[in-house]
Amino acid sequence: MKRADWLTRVLLGAIAVGLWVLILRPVFMRRTVRAADEAPVTKVVRAERFEVADSNGKTAAVLEASLLGPHLVLYGTDGNGFASLTYYESGPALNLFDSEGKPRVILTASRKGPELALLGGPPGLSLLDSNGKGSARLGFVKGEPALYLNDTGGKMRCGLTLISGAPGLTLGDSNGKPRAVLALVLGEPGLSLFDSKGKPRAGLRLVSGAPSLLLCDSGPKPRAVLGATEVVAPKMGATQRRAESSLVLFDKEGKVVWKAPPY
Q: Phi and psi of 11, rounded to 5°?
């Protein structure tokens, strides 16, 4: 074979490879991709049960058509269900479970209206702001209902509680310390004011239906009472009940130093 013919064949082969790489192959690939894109898509998948598993093969979610209605269950890594969504004849229901699989929160929307149930003890409901700071919490303290309002620093600023069945309203300062308490004590209303150290300094209450204003020092010990009160007579040692129109002053030891009227 002549050298010129061999060079011609090599040149023609290189041209053919170039045409394939630069022109023909991209066209072929575009047609292949277009054919894959235009493949028919299944719009509906019908089944009675779907299971979703994690990378370890554990069931993470189950969607099924149960006897009660459509049912969705989400599972934790321990294999216990922690949430379920079910549609009953009465309406949808969302259930949240604890680590032992016991229902703790049930949210339903029945024909009678929406209902939220908190189960177990002590249950609580918290409402947070967009930053997750300021909150309102409804819960139980020693088996009795309580409502607390906290500021953005997490400090309690207002609390509404029941103590032994008696209602009480507490107002707190920026440090969360109670500064004012309005409550029923032995069936009688009373208002107590506290200093920054949490010690009572003033109190307004009813004593057997009669009003009484009490002022205390930093001890805190009573130093003045305006209105109904009871004092011990120094000579007789008997308890003397003072009327609403009386004023009694005490020393730091709690002894009466002045009173009006004097009798």
A: -65, -45
On whether both 113 and 176 belong to a single domain, the answer is no
Give the pLDDT confidence of 138-196 residue by residue, as tens digits.
888 888 889 999 998 889 999 999 988 899 999 999 999 999 999 998 889 999 999 99
Question: Could you tell me where the DSSP H helices lie in the chain?
Answer: 3-19, 25-37
Domain assignment of residue 34, yes or no = no
pLDDT at 180: 97
Order of strands across the sheet with 200-207? 124-128, 135-141, 144-150, 156-163, 166-172, 178-185, 188-194, 200-207, 210-216, 222-227, 247-250, 256-260
Residue 175 backbone phi and psi in degrees, to 5: -95, 0
